[in-house]
């Protein structure tokens, strides 16, 4: 799976297990590894990093932490914050350049939410 460290850019059918590659995780109890591309989460999560994630099944969001959102417009990695209302969630970048400004996503457009447990840069 690949996630964009930028803005949402296109339509997606969501994460499908048949399109996933099996990997050995360096940490326990993760659901998948996600390759990151883009600069919006640098330096915290650099382009080319692999994030090991756990699917969030409850309604509790640990705001300020990094998550992969699988949305109707594709997967994206962001820090999450409360949205302007109960129907939205705010996505924030680590990179504070203006081109990576925060944006909001409708909660109904989120197909899956995965909390980042660990990231590592592949050399």
Number of strands: 8
Report on the biggest sheet: 8 strands, mixed
- The share of residues in extended strands comes to 35-45%
Report the radius of gyration as a whole number of Å: 13 Å
Residues in helix, %:
under 10%
Structural class: mainly beta
Give me the side-by-side strand order of the main sheet.
Answer: 1-2-3-8-4-5-6-7
Low-confidence stretches: 7-11
Describe the structure.
Helix content is 0%, strand content 42%. Mean pLDDT is 83; it is low at 7-11. It has no helices and eight strands. The protein has 123 residues and is mostly beta strands.
List the helices and strands and how they pair.
Elements: E1 2-4, E2 32-37, E3 49-55, E4 66-71, E5 74-82, E6 88-92, E7 103-106, E8 110-121
Relevant terms:
123 residues, mainly beta, 8-stranded mixed beta sheet
Structure, briefly:
0% of the residues lie in helices and 42% in strands. With 123 residues, it is mainly beta. β4 (66-71) and β5 (74-82) form a beta hairpin.
